[in-house]
Amino acid sequence: MRIHCKLLASLLCLGGVLILYLFLGNAEEEPHVKGTPKANALQATSGHGRARPPTPGHFRAMQDQKAQRHSKKKNKKMSEMKAKGPSLREQEKKRPTMPEEWMHLAVVTCGDRLEETVTMLKSAILFSKKRIKFHIFAEDSLKTEFESKFKEWPSAASRKYEYNIYPITFSVGNAEEWKKLFKPCAAQRLFLPMILKDVDSLLYVDTDVLFLRPLDDIWAFLHQFNDTQLAAMAPEHEIPKIGWYSRFARHPFYGTTGVNSGVMLMNLTRIRKTQFKNNMIPAGLTWEEMLHPLYQKYKNYITWGDQDLLNIIFYFNPENLYVFPCQWNYRPDHCMYGSNCKSAEDDGVSVLHGNRGVYHDDKQPAFKAFYEVIRDYPFEDNLFQSMYYPLQTKFLESVHTLCGRIPQVFLKQIEKTMKRIYERRVIVHVGPRVRD
Ligand SMILES: *[C@@H]1O[C@H](CO)[C@@H](O)[C@H](O)[C@H]1NC(C)=O
Ligand SMILES: *[C@@H]1O[C@H](CO)[C@@H](O)[C@H](O)[C@H]1NC(C)=O
To answer: Residue 409 to residues 357, 360, 399: CA-CA distances in angstroms?
Structure first.
């Protein structure tokens, strides 16, 4: 008897969800549109091949296309839902709780960094709560490859992001001159404030970064900026004695060890508005005005390209920089000479940065373990079974290295992240049943 009641209640509940889905489906889905191949083609050809910011018009056009397709798809979706009810049900219930603010994530990809970039983006959406707009600057030859990678991701993942792919370009000032001055890929990120005119703030990361906790958590630093801060980075090194800048740099740099630009938060609105102090003219210069002369002045002294320019800029304008702790940009430097990142020892690694190519060789297997498990994780599987346990196993194989000897530093935060996600899912799942 009780079983019958329960069954009936479950059926009613499922029915309710189905009806809700039909009514809310359109309204809910439309803003989640991601860059369709058509829309991207449209964008790439507009503006004479220059990168253009995603204007509201573009997104609206995409939505219209999607809406048309949507009504045709509705019936198909109904039958799909009947087939695999529970998993879709879970997702439906999670939707209304998704907050509306978008986070923006930018990356510049050249050469053979496609897989690395896709793995980084995957780590961002696996753990994040708010939705993310990806701004991907890539060589034209990579565009279709990105598009087909995104198509492989399941629809539950697609709801969490939109993307735009832009060509590598200096679409401000004299583009030809810029191209001659900079290596195209290296300096692209310096131009983001001018290219992404409609974006207020963004997180820029190198392709070899992996998020081990929600992007929301690093995004929160933006709200901690005081009135003058407009960018945030972590120190390049924790120990001046062995840091690169403190030993070798022939140009000014921020603080005692310089900053690493592989993970960089930017309030673009502020960067566009600010007059920056410099040692070229007594008056301040805007970001856009400053880049060219600064490069001219220092080009014979810089080694690491745009990161050096950023260090020079913030040497002259220290009040504009927020420095976050090393756990948010954790590199082999933090453990290969012994553990020296205090914040990661306390809280675990939050953002992993496998520079020096360590995801692709065998020098730092501790870093490579993360890369491989995130890359190979089949989206909809159980996180503990298909990611955390394989990670632990792989990590154990790295104990012969200095970095591999501190599993508590590497694993603490990602374990917490997974527990939190698991709890979110379980609560969503159990909630209604407790009510009946
Ligand atoms: C960035 O700065 C502008 C201007 O000060 C401010 O209005 C905006 O809220 C800031 N953005 C974030 C995400 O804090
Ligand atoms: C903001 O913080 C920076 C770094 O701590 C500091 O140099 C700057 O003076 C602060 N700005 C304001 C307006 O308090």
So the answer is: 21, 22, 13
pLDDT in tens, 162-213: 999 999 877 556 666 666 666 667 788 999 999 999 999 999 999 999 999 9
**Secondary-structure breakdown of the chain: helix, strand, coil percentages, each rounded to the nearest 5:** 60, 15, 30
Mutate-to-test residue for ligand 1 from 133, 270, 271, highest number of ligand atoms within 8 A of CB: 270
Measure 222 CA to ligand 1 centroid, in angstroms: 8
Record the tokens describing residue 179, joined without a space. Answer: 């191209």
Question: What's the mean pLDDT in 55-79?
Answer: 44
- Single out the residue of 182, 39, 158 nearest to residue 110, CA to CA: 182
Mutating to test ligand 2, I would choose from 223, 225, 228, 259 the residue with most ligand atoms within 8 A of its C-beta, which is 228
Residue 300 tokens read as 């014979």
Six-digit token pair at 286? 């805007």
- Residue with tokens 């030809």, as numbered in its chain: 176
Q: Are residues 315 and 420 in the same domain?
A: no
Q: Tell me the pTM.
A: 0.77
Residue 270, ligand 1, Cβ within 6 A: yes
> Domain residues for 131?
103-324
Amino acid in the structure at residue 185: C
Containing 217, the helix (H) or strand (E) segment is: helix 215-219
DSSP state of 282: S
pLDDT score of 152 more than 90 = yes
CATH number for position 276: 3.90.550.10
Q: How far apart are CA 258 and CA 69, in angstroms?
A: 51
Average pLDDT over residues 344-373: 97
Query: 324, 346, 368 — which closes off a domain?
Result: 324
Instruction: Out of 275, 290, 324, pick the residue that ends a domain.
Output: 324
> Which of these, 219, 327, 215, lies nearest to 267 by C-alpha position?
219
Q: Is 200 in the pocket of ligand 1 (CB under 6 A)?
A: yes
